[in-house]
């Protein structure tokens, strides 16, 4: 098997800058010559095994970070952005894109954000063309998208928040005692009422009201969320200050997201949960029973196990509604979801609505040849009353095939049979498959051949990419 070469110039420069070292001193500590270090920092040479060992020894660097989750994430988003017709037909090879991502990650991220702002403005103008001039448009990412990207580019893991929650859970023999003690310290009383929502807090009376309709797991989660907002306010503020959100709305949405992260991490403390996940082979139902949490909470927590030096299986996690709209998304794998549009219709997450209460398993292969094990299940949420609306969602959790044996859901599947893997894509607008029977729209980078006298599965044939036509 060929040894994978790691080009990590940007990461080396980041480590050196963080340690406030010159290239010469950094090279000495790594045990290499100055010209060799310079070549590695400019991605002219891969990082050798000797250098990897020196990084781990001298700088406590987790070599697993060189697996390239950030680079894969940036590459996926950059490819999608550059396939927008606004960039024209100029050919840009994958090798060029990888070079840009490796050498100028900050520039690449700025370009992705710029394209997101363009899309936001373009869509808004298209929807409001009849009121142009009556309302000012702001060419920024929406607050929701800005917060989504904040968590996305941090591997859905915020170390300071996660460790604070883990410490909180360890302050008492059990979580219930820790919660009660914190509520008493902060003079907060809790009551149950027949609320339409999940939680209501009165700062003046210091009263937290929870919905009696919701499950005990939901009530516990909402209590921990409120504790994060009150008892860990300074920590949340510091994290928000560092993020530098563009708008007040984005900051407040992120505040809720950070409090959510705290609540999940307190219910499922990192080390304890990681050990349990490995012991049960990531059996979601057993973990839900052990930690008194919902299936969705367990799946979401599994996708956050990205602590440096103690990482779990790199998962992708997604939640979709019945229209196929992605409402939550994260990936620590090479599979990264489209920033715009829905998910591939061939993915088993869409079929989960048809089989409520059951886990669906799928072996899938993306156009780049990467293979995955994906599990999906519906997570519909009753409103607790006859007249209350039911929120219907489905979730999918998956990993690359090399980790499949760590999941109980791989048992009995023929992982070595190529015919068992279903071809899936990211989204139709950027998918390169030319023979998909479920394609909704043509790919942006290909031209179409349309013949009125012929009709196949699609009313057109996908021809050569636009960038290759003469």
Mean pLDDT: 83
Number of strands: 11
Low-pLDDT segments, ≥5 res: 129-139
The helix count comes to 16
Structural class: alpha+beta
- Helix share bin: 40-55%
Radius of gyration: 24 Å
Query: What assembly state would you assign to the polypeptide chains in this entry?
Result: single chain
Task: Report on the biggest sheet.
Answer: 6 strands, mixed
Distance between the termini: 40 Å
Strand order of the largest sheet: 5-4-8-7-6-9
Q: What general form does the structure show? A: globular
Taken as a percent bin, the fraction of beta residues is 5-15%
The SSE string, one letter per element, is HHHHHHHHHHEEEHHHHHHEEEEEEEE
Could you name the key traits of this structure?
alpha+beta, 11 strands, globular, 16 helices, 470 residues
Compact summary:
The protein has 470 residues and is α+β, with helices and mostly antiparallel strands. Helices cover 40% and strands 13% of the residues. It contains 16 helices and 11 strands.
Task: Give a description of the structure.
- This protein has helices at 9-18, 23-30, 34-41, 49-59, 69-82, 94-103, 105-127, 143-152, 159-169, 175-185, 216-231, 233-243, 248-267, 270-279, 284-291, 295-302, and strands at residues 189-193, 199-202, 207-211, 315-321, 326-331, 360-365, 371-378, 393-400, 422-423, 446-449, 461-465.
- The protein is an alpha+beta fold and 470 residues long.
- The radius of gyration is 24 Å and the shape is globular.
- It starts with 8 loop residues before the first helix and ends in a 5-residue tail after the last strand.
């Amino acid at each position: 098997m060929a040894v994978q070469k790691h080009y990590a110039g940007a990461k080396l420069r980041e480590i050196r800058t963080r340690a406030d070292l010159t290239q010469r001193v950094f090279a000495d500590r790594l045990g290499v010559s100055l010209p060799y270090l310079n070549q590695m920092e400019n991605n002219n040479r891969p990082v050798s095994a000797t250098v990897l060992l020196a990084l781990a020894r001298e700088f406590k660097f987790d070599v697993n970070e060189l697996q390239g989750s950030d680079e894969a994430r940036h590459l996926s988003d950059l490819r999608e952005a550059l396939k927008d017709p606004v960039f024209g037909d100029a050919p840009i090879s994958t090798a060029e894109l990888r070079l840009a991502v490796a050498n100028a990650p900050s520039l690449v991220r700025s370009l992705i954000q710029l394209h997101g702002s363009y899309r936001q403005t373009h869509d808004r103008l298209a929807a409001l063309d009849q009121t142009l001039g009556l309302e000012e448009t702001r060419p920024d990412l929406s607050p929701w998208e800005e917060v989504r990207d904040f968590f996305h580019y941090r591997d859905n893991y915020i170390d300071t928040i996660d460790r604070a929650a883990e410490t909180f859970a360890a302050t008492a023999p059990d979580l219930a005692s820790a919660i009660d003690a914190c509520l008493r310290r902060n003079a907060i009383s809790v009551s149950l009422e027949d609320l339409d929502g999940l939680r209501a807090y009165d700062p003046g009376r210091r009263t937290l009201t929870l919905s009696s309709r919701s499950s005990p797991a939901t009530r516990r989660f909402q209590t921990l969320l409120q504790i994060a907002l009150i008892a860990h306010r300074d920590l949340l503020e510091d994290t928000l200050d560092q993020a530098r959100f563009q708008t007040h709305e984005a900051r407040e949405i992120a505040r809720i997201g950070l409090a959510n992260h705290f609540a999940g991490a307190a219910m499922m403390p990192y080390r304890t949960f990681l050990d349990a996940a490995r012991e049960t082979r990531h059996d979601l139902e057993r973990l839900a029973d052990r930690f008194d949490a919902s299936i969705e909470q367990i799946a979401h927590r599994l996708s956050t196990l990205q602590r440096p030096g103690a990482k779990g299986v790199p998962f992708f996690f997604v939640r979709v509604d019945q229209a196929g709209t992605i409402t939550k998304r994260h990936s620590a794998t090479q599979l990264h979801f489209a920033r715009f549009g829905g998910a591939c219709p061939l993915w088993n997450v869409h079929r989960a609505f048809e089989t409520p209460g059951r886990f669906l398993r799928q072996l899938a292969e993306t156009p780049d040849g990467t293979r995955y094990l994906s599990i999906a299940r519906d997570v519909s949420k009753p409103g607790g009353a006859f007249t209350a609306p039911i929120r219907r969602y489905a979730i999918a959790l998956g990993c690359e095939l090399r980790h499949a044996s760590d999941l109980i859901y791989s048992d009995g599947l023929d992982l070595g049979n190529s015919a068992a893997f279903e071809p899936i894509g990211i989204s139709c607008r950027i998918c390169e498959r030319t023979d998909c029977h479920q394609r909704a729209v043509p790919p942006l980078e290909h031209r179409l051949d349309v013949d009125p006298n012929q009709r196949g599965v699609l009313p057109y044939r996908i021809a050569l990419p636009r960038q290759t036509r003469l």
